[in-house]
Write a structure and sequence with these properties.
Helix content is 65%, strand content 7%. The chain is α/β, with parallel strands linked by helices. Among the domains are: 3-130, no CATH class; 138-274, TolB, N-terminal domain (Rossmann fold, 3-Layer(aba) Sandwich), CATH 3.40.50.10070; 568-651, Serine Threonine Protein Phosphatase 5, Tetratricopeptide repeat (Alpha Horseshoe), CATH 1.25.40. Helix 11 (278-291) runs parallel beside helix 13, helix 15 runs parallel beside helix 17 and helix 23 runs antiparallel to helix 24 (510-523).
């Protein structure tokens, strides 16, 4: 075989170029898989599958490059010509190309070969240790075990561990795993070394709490996960009012045993002892526990009650006011009752006046401004929270939601992904990312995020409700019905009933939709969308049409109250136009449409409600144009065809399906 002739033939057939492009593309693909597959909860084997496919595709790509060529006329068989032996000399330049090409291919293979178990175990372990070994000052604080007779004291054990974690996290010299990541392992049968590996830390602090009456016994132990040895262990038998002293002592022992040299600012943090009323602190811990749950009405009610009790005992408790603000904003999100928003605003301002150095205060303020449409102020507050605590994942999520609201989706997505990467076991980060994708019409992409929540929290009714909604948007009605049934079985909520009503409405089962929307109204009587949807269902129910107008009028009244909180809420403006159009108020409907379109001309939901409103006003041509734009922006054409509110627009010749 003439090597020189063979190499020249490879050059003529552009095999070199295809090999380089394929190797570079493979490298990029594997990098993306390495970064995003763990965020989406995909198993390690998924990356291995991608690598195997890439490896199998390489010789196929080279063979195709040898026999075929892409030309302006299409794919044709390669017509390589013999330019004479003079052109076949293996020059230094050609030799360099061959060496670089070979090196690139071997580099991609070598860096990912361990996924196919082709590197010896000893070498793999040595390489892994060199690359991923956590720092000696990295630590995770996992939930302390409640050894008390009463299960309801679980919050006390969790709260003690969390406060120790928060104290350590304020020390710049330590690398502390976030609360929602380390607390993910609560109640799971996972060894310390496995926990440390997942969280990327060298040390783990664990413990137990037994509380009886006014006495508390706390046992804490610090473990070096690299070898399983105990670095330190201590038992504290104290009065429950000495909780803060116990936290301080444990934190100091951790610092001492890890041989950390503290800066003056970190020393001051350890020396600062909170002047809190013990009973108020107890109520605060319990309130935060409820606030971390799925944030249904019952959990929020409990949180409001407990934060209020903490404030009654200590009216200078800034964190309790911030917790109360967050709880009331959660109520406002569900109920749309402006009274909840005004109460939240008062609580937030009290928190800020009491302590301007607490990250939770700025997170609550950021959410308050975001709900009222003051995006610049919201961004400022979230960034202040992140400056005080770069690991404040709720601040990252709030910042992402603000950029989404400010029509900056690229920045919003970047921040949502940062939040998930920072705390990969925090259900709320996945929920908000899923909602972001849902709102953008990227329904297929939203499903893995909602599914991840159902895996982490199988009793989270809201996650199943969200999953049901996205399945309906994809016309996967059986999957949607199953998810909604699970949601209602776990916890009947206004959102779940509303989603069920929407599905029945699209199936033209209007009387059944009325029943679902009536239940949604019972659970959230101040939510204007439920009243408006009930009006839609009555409008198309045989013999019940006259009941639609009172429902629309009630929806309008409540929506106008909602606009007092955020006058530029485009979703509310669009729905107001829909309601006004359906009761014949043409001028009002057009005014609301103009405001919504001016604020968000490329919002798919604004364009869709524009279509339904104009339909009700008899403006068929303009309605069809708005509907076509909504479809191009991502709204489901199949769902549009099922929607009775579109007055047959989808049957017209001008209806465009991408």
């Amino acid at each position: 075989m003439d090597v020189q002739r063979f190499l020249a033939e490879m050059k003529d057939r552009r095999v070199y170029r295809i090999a380089v492009i394929y190797a570079a593309g493979s490298w990029a693909l594997l990098q993306v898989a390495d970064l995003f597959f763990p965020m989406l909860g995909l198993p390690e084997q998924a990356i291995t599958t991608v690598l195997a496919a890439v490896a199998l595709g390489f010789p196929i790509a080279l063979i195709l490059a040898w026999f075929l060529d892409i030309t302006p006329d299409g794919v044709v068989e390669t017509d390589a010509t013999d330019n004479g032996l003079g052109s076949l000399r293996l020059s230094p330049a050609r030799l360099a190309v061959v060496i670089i090409l070979t090196g690139l291919v071997f580099l991609v293979g070598f860096l990912y070969m361990d996924r196919l178990d082709l590197i010896g175990k000893a070498e793999e372990q040595q390489s892994s240790t060199a690359i991923t070994a956590p720092s000696e000052t990295s630590i995770a604080v996992i939930p302390f075990v409640n050894m008390s007779d009463m299960k309801e004291l679980e919050y006390f054990a969790d709260g003690l561990a969390e406060e120790i974690l928060n104290l350590l996290a304020r020390l710049n010299e330590l690398d502390v795993a976030a609360r929602t990541s380390s607390f993910y392992f609560k109640g799971r049968d996972v060894g310390i070394q496995e926990i440390a590996r997942h969280l990327g830390v060298r040390n783990v602090l664990e413990g137990s709490v037994r509380r009886q009456g006014n006495r508390v016994r706390v046992t804490a132990q610090l473990i070096d996960a690299s070898n399983g040895y105990h670095l330190w262990s201590e038992t504290y038998d104290r009065d429950s009012s000495d909780t803060f002293d116990i936290q301080d002592e444990i934190a100091r022992q951790v610092v001492a045993k890890l041989q950390v040299i503290l800066s003056d600012s970190s020393k001051k943090i350890l020396d600062q002892r909170p002047a809190l009323v013990p009973r108020a602190y107890d109520y605060y811990l319990r309130g935060r526990e409820y606030l971390r749950e799925s944030r249904g009405v019952d959990s929020l009610d409990q949180a409001v009650t407990l934060f209020t009790r903490a404030i009654a005992l200590d009216d200078g408790y800034a964190e309790a006011y911030a917790g109360l603000c967050d709880s009331l904003l959660g109520h406002y999100r569900i109920s749309r009752d402006p009274r909840n928003f005004k109460s939240a605003e008062k609580a937030c301002q009290n928190a800020l006046a009491l302590d301007s150095k607490v990250p939770a205060v700025y997170v609550a303020l950021g959410n308050l401004y975001r709900f009222s449409g003051e995006n610049a102020a919201a961004i400022r507050e979230f960034e202040r929270a992140l400056k005080l605590n770069p690991k404040a994942v709720d601040a990252l999520i709030g910042l992402a939601e603000t950029y989404e609201q400010d029509n900056k989706p690229e920045r919003a997505q970047e921040l949502f992904l940062q939040a998930i990467q920072l705390q990969p076991y925090y259900w709320h980060a996945y929920q908000r990312m899923g909602s972001f994708l849902f709102s953008a019409g990227r329904f297929d992409e939203a499903i893995p995020y909602y599914q991840r929540i159902t895996e982490m929290m199988p009793d989270n009714a809201g996650a199943f409700s969200d999953l049901g909604a996205v399945h309906y948007m994809l016309n996967q009605f059986e999957s949607a019905a199953l998810a909604l049934q699970k949601s209602l079985a776990l916890a009947p909520t206004a959102i779940a009933y509303s989603n069920a009503g929407a599905s029945l409405f699209l199936l033209r089962r209007f009387e059944e939709a009325v029943d679902m929307y009536q239940k949604a109204v019972e659970y959230a009587p101040d939510d204007f969308e439920n009243w408006g949807s009930l009006g839609d269902a009555y409008r198309y129910s045989e013999g019940l049409q006259e009941l639609a107008e009172p429902m629309y009028r009630n929806a309008i009244k409540l929506a106008l109250e909602s606009l007092e909180v955020n006058a530029n809420d485009v979703s509310t403006l669009g729905l107001l136009a829909h309601y006004e159009a359906n009761i014949g108020n043409r001028e009002q409907a057009l005014q609301y449409l103009a405001r919504a379109s001016a604020l968000a001309p490329k919002d798919l939901y604004v364009n869709y409600t524009t279509a339904t409103a104009l339909c009700a006003l008899g403006e068929t041509e303009q309605a069809l144009a708005a509907l076509n734009l909504a479809i191009r922006l991502g709204y489901s054409a199949t769902l549009a065809k099922a929607d009775a509110s579109l007055c047959g627009l989808t049957e017209l010749p001008g209806f465009q399906v991408p």
